[in-house]
# Entry
Amino acid sequence: MILQELSEAVGVSGKEDAVRKLILNAIDGHADQIRIDPMGSITAVKPGKGKAKNRPRIMLSAHMDEVGFMVTGFDGDGSLHFINIGGIDERILPGLRVKVGESGIPGVIIWTPIHRNRDQNAVKLGSLRIDIGASDKGEVNGKVKLGDRIAFDSQYMEIGATMLRGKAFDDRVGCSLLVDILQGGPYPVDVLAAFTVQEEIGLRGARVAAQALKPDVALALEGTTANDIPNPLAEPDDEDEPNPACRLGDGPVLTVMDRSLIVNPKLLGFLKQTAEKHKIPYQLKTQLGGGTDAGAIHTTTVGVTSGVISVPCRYIHSPTAYLNRDDYANTLKLVQAILKDLTWEGLGRD
Ligand SMILES: [Zn+2]
# Structure
C-alpha cells in the first residue's frame, strides 16, 4: 500500500504531476500499455489470463487530483489572493496552513482581522488572503507565480491499530487500491486501469480515458463521505440521529445512486452477491450528494455499465481525513473478488 506517499504528494486538479510520478513508478512492470494521455491521466492494461474469448473488459478508475486552491493575485503587503479549485467549504479556511507552488512554500490563510470584521458568519473566500511571511509584493515576486496551486498542509499518520489520517484520501485511497490491484493478479478479465485527472472540477479526465479504453464495464474506486459523526450545527435539543451516508468500519460502500449516476441494477446485484459470497461486509449509499468518475464514464462510447465502490472517509475536502484500515482491506478484497467472479452471465448479458 502506498497510501502514505500518495496522501503526502500534492496534486491539485490540473497539476497532478507528483501523484502521477509515484503511480508510474509503482505500476511499472505490473501492467502493459502504460500511457499518459494528452490530459495527463494514466491508462494501463493488465491482460486477463487464460484463453477465454470475449472476456469482459473492466475499467477501474481512480482520480489523482485533489481539491485545493490557485494563486490569482498579490497585494502590496505581500499577501496572496486565491480561488478554490473544487468544492471547499469556506468556513473551514481561516487559520489553515497551506503549501504554495511546486516548492511547497509554507503559508497560512488569514482573513480580515476580527477588530475590523465582527461578523463572524461572513467568511467569504474573496476576503481571505494567504500570508507566506513576505513583507511586500517585491518579496513575493519570483517565489510565487499566478496560477500556482495551493494545497492543504497536513501530515499523514496512523492512529491506533485501525485508523489512518491524512490529506486527499479522496481519492488517493482509490489510487492506492488500484495500484495494489495492478500489483496483484493476474485476473481472469482484462483490467483497464485509469488514474484520472480533473475529477474534482467536473469528471473531465475520466471521460477521455474511457473513450480511449472502450471498456464494457467500469467501476470507480473512491473515498466517499462518511457522515457518522454528530452534526456540530445541530441545536442542543435537536434529537435527530445523524443520518449517515455510510460509516467507518462497516465495509466498502456500494453506490445505488448519486448526482452523476444511477448504477445499473444488474451490476449492483452482482456486486452485492459477490460481497455476500465472499463474506465481505458492505454498505449501500443512496444519498444524492456528489458524483464520481463513473458518472462521466457510463455515458461514453456506446454506454458503459458502471458502478462505484468506495472506502468511507470522514472529513473529505478538508486538510485531514480519517479512514479505517479494515475498510481498505475489505474494499481491496471485494474488488479482487469481483475481478475473479465477473462474467457476462453474472451481469445478465450474453
Ligand atoms: Zn473523489
Q: What stands out?
A: The chain has eight helices and 17 strands. The chain has two domains: 3-66+167-234+241-341, 69-152.
